[in-house]
Amino acid sequence: MSTFGWFAVVILPVLGGLIAWAGDVIGYRLGKSRRSLFGLRPRTTARLIGIVVGVALPLIGVGVALLGSSEARDALFHLDELRQRQADLTAQNQELEARQARTLRQAEESEQRARDLRADLYTTRHSLSETRFRVVAASRELGRAQQEVRRASGNAERLRAIAERLQRALTPLQKKAADLQRHLDDLQVQLQDKTAALVEKANELTTREAELHRKEADIETLKRNFLEAVELINSPVQLETGHELVRTPLEVGRTLEDTEDRLLKVLLTASRVGEKWGAEPGPNGLAVRLLRPLPPDFASEQGLPREADIVRAFARQLQAGGTGTFVIGVRVARRMYEAERAPVGVELWPPRPRSVPYVRVFFENQVIYQTEIDGSDGREAVFTQLYNLVTKIVRREAKESGLLPNPETGEYGAANFGQLFEAMDAIAAHKGPVLVQVVAAADTYITDPLLIRIEVGKGAKTTGDKERSGG
To answer: Per DSSP, what are the bridge partners of residue 360?
Structure first.
């Protein structure tokens, strides 16, 4: 084997491996450092480097073959000259056949066979043009065939033997070319299938990556929400569920729109109270978010109902019994924490407002409860009976009469100890049983605090007029 042959067999594979390794390292480092060329994505840049290295490998192989082999240069750049030389040799063979009349028939047959072989050789070279790695071998076979044709000019028998040998040499080449063509067709089909599968996998990978990015974003959002929820739950409770922000009488209008407007004014009042407790206004400008009562036709899978729908449904309930004045309230429907920076969730109560009409429970000077207390029992016993009278008994009477308690304390009033001591002195002065009456000091409606006065003895002087008392 020639020096160039050893170079091509040993050095070129090593050089190709080094180039492939360098391309892989460059692509890997560019991909890992997320660098980009020409504004491309880092992954696309790494793939471009791999493609450039793949293109460089065959180009370098062909360049080395051209530099190291004159036969390769002849095959690529001097093919026309070789054909011209073949034509000259054919003319020489024809002259030789004219001089050698005795072997004319054999020479003509040899010439015909030579032309057939050249045609077959041309066809074989043309079919192998798509497989570049076979070009050098085919060129060498062609050169040897031309040398055999030139040497056949001196002896027709030798020419025929050479022609037969060429025929035998070309037969496996033709078979090999056909096998290579079939193999190339199979490889092209496989390449198309692999390319389609690769494109499908790439699309699937892109979809999976997009889905992964979305899930990562969702996880980050959940983490933030979780941390915010933990921070919120660990903060003190600012408003507990059931805490009343507003309790007020509401006059039901003649139209549904009038009643809705009045309900909205109640919500505005509740919003101002919520702001004092630390609630912040939402997109609608209110520091409260109406959550209940749910409209009758609302389905749970629809999420939260609209505040306008809740107000309209509540107004319809009010309108159902005609005009009038009724007690409604706005209370906390969801616990609010100190760290919470949002409107407080509230509900309108009661769910059936018609059951709580705004009425007068006690008239002024109406006797709420009366009993006899013996002033001779001692001041401690008299005080105990008076205290039970204005707390437990009056509280019971107020509750049974329908009076609503204070939304924050749950009481109906506050005991006035000064009034109790004055009444105790008046009872002790009688030195015996005396009639004690608890009288409403003013007209008391269902949402008003209970104002009472204590009257001792028939026609006794009233004490603590219009003082707050009761349980």
So the answer is: 445
